[in-house]
Amino acid sequence: MKYARVVGLFAEKNRRSLDDALDFFYRSELYPLVSEGVSDLHCMSDGYLAEELTDEHLEKGCQG
Fold first, then answer.
1. Does the pLDDT value for residue 45 go beyond 90?
2. Are 46 and 9 in contact (CB under 8 A)?
3. How many structural domains is the chain composed of?
């Protein structure tokens, strides 16, 4: 459920479809860090992780 909440927040904040947001999440640098428990990222709030995902999205120069 955590991934669904993070992706939902990311999609809403960045006006993306859930499919696009999920695709970006699974291709992100954040996903393996969260899934492998690096630096306890999986313990961070959904909002924090959505913001980290948004930052990565902006750094990569993605549109939308």
1. yes
2. yes
3. 1
The pTM for the full model equals 0.86
Does 64 reside within a domain? no
Q: At what angle do helices 46-59 and 2-14 cross, to 10 degrees?
A: 50
Mean pLDDT of 17-42: 90
Q: Is residue 14 part of a domain?
A: yes
Domain that holds residue 13: 2-59
Q: Amino acid identity of 3?
A: Y
The 10 Å CB-count burial string (b at 16+, else e) for 37-53 is: eeeebeebebeebbbbb
Instruction: Tell me the C-alpha distance between 20 and 44, whole Å.
Output: 23
